[in-house]
Amino acid sequence: MNTLQIYNVDENVASNAWVDHERYLTLYQQSIDNPEAFWREQGKCINWIKPYTQIRDVDFNYDNLHIRWYYDGTLNACANCIDRHLPTRAHQTAIIWEGDNPSDEAYITYQVLYEKVCQFANALKKLGVKKSDVVTIYMPMIPEAAYAMLACARIGAIHSVVFGGFSSEALANRIDNGLSRVVITADESVRGGKRTPLKENVNTAAKLLKETTLDSVIVVKRTGGDIHWEEGRDYWYDDLVNNASLDCPCEEMDAEDPLFILYTSGSTGKPKGVLHTTGGYMVYASLTYRYVFDYHEGDIYWCTADVGWITGHSYVVFGPLANGATTLMFEGTPTYPDASRCWQIVDKYKVNIFYTAPTAIRALMRFGDEPVKKTSRQSLKLLGTVGEPINPNAWEWYYNIVGKQQCPIVDTWWQTETGGILLTPLPGATNLKPGSATLPFFGIEPALVDDKGSILQDTAEGNLVFLNSWPGQMRTVYQHHERFRNTYFSNFKNMFMTGDRARRDEDGYYWITGRVDDVINVSGHRLGTAEIESALVKHEIVAEAAVVGFPHDIKGQGIYAFVILVVGKEGSKALCEELKLMARQEIGPIAVPDIIQFTPGLPKTRSGKIMRRILRKVASGEFDDLGDISTLADPTIVESLTLNRVIK
Ligand code: PRX
Known about the structure:
The protein is α/β, with parallel strands linked by helices and 648 residues long. The protein has a domain at 523-644: ANL, C-terminal domain (GMP Synthetase, Chain A, domain 3, 2-Layer Sandwich). 30% of the residues lie in helices and 23% in strands. It has 20 helices and 31 strands. A hairpin with a 6-residue loop joins strand 1 (56-59) and strand 2 (66-69). Bound molecules: adenosine-5'-monophosphate-propyl ester. Adenosine-5'-monophosphate-propyl ester is lined by residues 264, 310-311, 386-389, 411-416, 437, 498-500, 512, 515, 521, 526. Adenosine-5'-monophosphate-propyl ester (PRX) binds at residues 264, 310-311, 386-389, 411-416, 437, 498-500, 512, 515, 521, 526. Belongs to the ATP-dependent AMP-binding enzyme family. Keywords: Acetylation, ATP-binding, Ligase, Magnesium, Metal-binding, Nucleotide-binding.
């Protein structure tokens, strides 16, 4: 029984919401009863070159798995984000850019966006980029990152954006995996006043490549910092685009042609290249953007996500621009120069819709109410969160202090794999409960199943699955279809497995309770514990490592590493620092362990399997509830682990 307060629709009606609760229920039921008719209609929210007649061809059965949407239609994603708006909104701002330094800003109209993207697309073509080639984008949050994505889409190239916080090793793996001959980057990125040497990371990555010959690196000059230049391979962005033509025809793409790859962590060591295709993804990003954020003409919308993550793809670039919205891109961090920054930006641009991650809210809460209250925030009408469960405390603060009890909060649950939001309140239509992502979006059929795959009814807790496809669903793991089938469709028959667990309450609301696999969520960033372990064991004196998450006030989950050293070696503070550096070099700063505990052994079953459940309990300090340890090969190891637990 959930005792949290329910926020009533009446209390938080967005003044001109698209749907009310009755309408939501009716539309939802229709979308489930007759998905063909529903999606046939919704597919029209974007422009098609050749209209589709076929809606979907889907089978979730492991042996015959395939997912196709609108598959006889043709379109271009870039044309949907730019060209279609030119007749009516050429002079409207498409992108507002706010630099790390509060005095840096830019307004890019749809007309200018068109020209910049065409020039970039022509430059790519000149470098030999063709339809279906993979182009890697490793950029700061600057408008050129969006230009690059759209330019690829325009000419039918598949973009693979790699988060600018990833290391050169992580970048090299992704370039290799996509056999990407072209990388687009900047000399340096700037966040919170600190610079990161992106171009230098590309140089290092180029030396680490095993599969690919990298022939072109396009460099945007962001800071003018010193960089090493390789003649014949490196090109300044300005030199390439300045003389390029302002027009570039759009490639006509099949609905099921790939639009992008985005790597995400799973339970094995190697990140998966999640592949999204053109038609279904664009329909779904566009439609969910409009309804979930209750977007209306003239709204100023700001999503704080980096374009290196799926949120940046769907809800900084494609969703808003497909709707002809004004989307704000922010280069900096919420606490620089001070903790009032976000709200100052809201006031400066009169932001109406603000979408961020719980970790940012928790980080800002620490500074108290004053940095918020000294700003007006009068323009805000809707708040959103994504990426991890939001604890009710943070929700209340966001609702009461930031939103002044005037703005509904949409707690949106989704994944890189889902392409767009699947569980969410609709503003004005759904009563809110702090901490719950509430109800499914139209056309979405969630279910909870037990570990054998039996569907649980009514109030229940279990594995969160989806029984039916939606247009924005990923189609495959790039060049690894087997992995796609095995990861998402092998455990439970005829269902898409999310890897999350959830609870459903008496009102049918969903509450995400965590992951079922060895994936942890650090500050809204998804990391496989196996990835961090492989980074740590690269150190010559590490024999074995096991990484688990533990509750962390700001990050949601912190990283706790148990490390066994080779015989005769001892742990030290200096070694901790070396190991942290390994994780930083192999993956990036987000993967650096918060706590490292050296241990002579790990809790293993007699068959050699690490019992992570015990490690998680030790890391969280929950010693009373360790469960059955009698199956361990050496039960005494548990005492040693608990006695030597490291507290930060
Ligand atoms: O565990 C869920 C959590 O983030 C995971 C997906 O991570 P990623 O693919 O990086 O995409 C993040 C942005 C869409 C999910 O499996 N998650 C995401 N949104 C929520 C959430 N957990 C609870 N509540 C949410 N609103």
